[in-house]
């Protein structure tokens, strides 16, 4: 791989290129990293690269000409031109993997107040390394280069990049080295017994646990499914992006809902399910071949949707019960259904409040109160009508 970095401050990269893994990767010819001072491309007699902004305002703006010419002098068919800017798409490990497969990267480091908008037209991508503003793109160029180079085949031991943080969107498991006991802090026993199946299980468990504790946001877009199929090991768990799994309700029985799960892509396996550890909405799910028997939904909006559906179903049943009570003159039936309405409200508050959100919960309770009021009004009218009838009959 070749990485060309367009910068006004090439010296900033000296230390970066001459130490540790990056130095070795360059020596082993896994990558060549060149810094190009685009000031050398300026056609201005004073080698100017920036000017004041049109329309006024503070600071200097990088001009098109030196950058256009510098890019054109090195760009080939297989080059990917990347502009470093806080306005770019946020850099992450997935992007690092993608870029590590490229043959030629051209990284453009902005500086000063900004760059002429037209420079964007020669770039394939814009990348930011985070929501903060640096004095230039040099540090972001180093961050990106570092994370990309270490992923190039043969640069580091592949085992160590296999389980690292952000693979599968999960953080890394904890690691320990000698001594076994440091000031009373002991290495977990499981790591000392040489049982690699157990160690593997422990590490997977820890990755999920650590992610849930430190970065629960990384689990938000995941659906966790417990599989229990014929050819599957019991309790084998699959985690994937909810985008890749379609969950559709296919049947509604009295007590259980039947959900159909269809995969849009291969689901990667991780071998632990900790329903009590991760907050989510538990569902019973069955697909046709009965391979899925438990689903834990973690995506907020999806949880809301399903919880709302379930609650609305319960309200429909209550409504039906009110209608039944209206068509009968059994006094016990009236108080029973009013009690059921009260119990339903309590049940929704206790069991669904967390999933529905305050606004939905409010609407639902109002909805039930409305049904209760309408029912009581209708019942009162009914009984005053009946009383009138009885009085009329008495008078006759
Ligand atoms: N240039 C200045 N700040 C930056 C950032 N956060 N990411 C990428 N380039 C930048």
The gist of it:
The protein is of the alpha/beta class. It contains 10 helices and 17 strands.
Strand fraction band? Answer: 15-25%
Q: Strand order of the main beta sheet, please?
A: 2-1-6-5-8
Bound molecules: adenine
CATH class of the largest domain: Alpha Beta
Largest sheet: 5 strands, parallel
Order of helices and strands: EHHEEEHEHEEEHHEEHEEEEEEEHHH
Low-confidence stretches: 226-278, 285-291
How would you sum up this structure, described in words?
With 396 residues, the chain is an alpha/beta fold. The protein has four domains: 2-160, 3-Layer(aba) Sandwich (Alpha/beta knot), CATH 3.40.1280; 182-212; 220-298, no CATH class; 301-395. The chain is 40% helix and 21% strand. The protein has helices spanning 14-17, 20-27, 64-74, 93-100, 138-149, 158-162, 196-214, 300-326, 331-356, 358-395, and strands spanning 2-7, 32-37, 50-51, 61-62, 79-90, 104-109, 114-115, 125-128, 181-182, 185-186, 222-227, 236-241, 245-252, 257-263, 268-270, 281-283, 292-297. The chain has a five-stranded parallel β-sheet, with helices on both faces. A hairpin with an 8-residue loop joins strand 11 and strand 12. Helix 8 (300-326) packs antiparallel against helix 9 (331-356), helix 8 runs parallel beside helix 10 (358-395) and helix 9 (331-356) packs antiparallel against helix 10. The longest helix has 38 residues, at 358-395. The N and C termini lie far apart (105 Å). 22% of the residues are buried. Adenine binds next to strand 5.
